[in-house]
Amino acid sequence: PCKLYDKLCCVYVFAAKQELIVYQLGKDAIGKLCTINLFSACDTFAVSVIDNLLAVHNTDSRISMIFDVWLQQWTNHPIAAPLPLGGPPQSGEGDGTDVQPAESFVKQWEFEHPCYILDRQAGKMWTLELNLEVLCASSSDKVNLVRCLLKRRDARELVLGVLRACVREREALYSLLQIFS
Predict the structure, then answer these.
(1) How confident is the model at residue 122 (pLDDT cuts 50, 70, 90)?
(2) Is the CA virtual torsion 50, 54, 58, 62 positive or negative?
(3) Half-sphere exposure (CA, 13 Å, Cβ side) for 129?
């Protein structure tokens, strides 16, 4: 179980169908909240919850996809392009920009609920954090990116940056209408 936008949920990875199914758990009933296509032909997935977002880690191909269940009413795609799994910061205490390649780490990692990575062999544990700047840079869907950012704390400057980019790049008027509605 996990909490997504103050709703108690259960996340199930149906690897055979390449789907992630999110159920909302209520006091008297259980209902399917959404089904997310994982777009991957792999059997090894781990799921983390970071700031009400689902990070689905494909450990075979060493990528992560970030989904927002709140956005499932508009799209069933990840918020951004699949992002490579990075290793821990090289200096031990970094801002997330100085990460090592994950190839040597992923096989021994255990993804623990809600947002931890445990490396028993090295005797270390890390907390996953969301880098909104990287998320913005890797997203091509500006409408849903803004919708997602509006649900994040401390994302006001990023929202304004995306809006500036939309105007500068002469985004279609319909897209701007969707952003502001």
Answers:
(1) confident
(2) negative
(3) 14
Structure tokens at 76: 């069933």
Q: Give dist(CA 70, CA 92) in Å, integer.
A: 34
Q: Can you read off the two tokens belonging to residue 58?
A: 């494909």
Question: What gap in Å lies between CA 77 and CA 174, rounded to an integer?
Answer: 20
| pLDDT, tens only, 17-71 | 889 999 999 988 899 999 998 877 677 888 999 999 999 988 788 888 999 999 9
* Nearest-angstrom CA–CA distance, 50 and 114: 7
Give, rounded to a whole angstrom, the gap between the first and last alpha carbons of the chain.
Answer: 33
CA torsion 32-34-40-45 (nearest 10°) is -60
| pLDDT > 80? residue 9 | yes
> pLDDT per residue over 123-177, tens digit each?
889 898 888 998 999 998 999 999 999 999 889 999 999 999 999 999 888 888 8
Cis amide prior to 114 (ω within 30 degrees): yes
Amino acid at 53: L
Token readout for 131 is: 């880098």
Q: Among candidates 40, 65, 63, 45, which has minimal Cα distance to 55?
A: 65
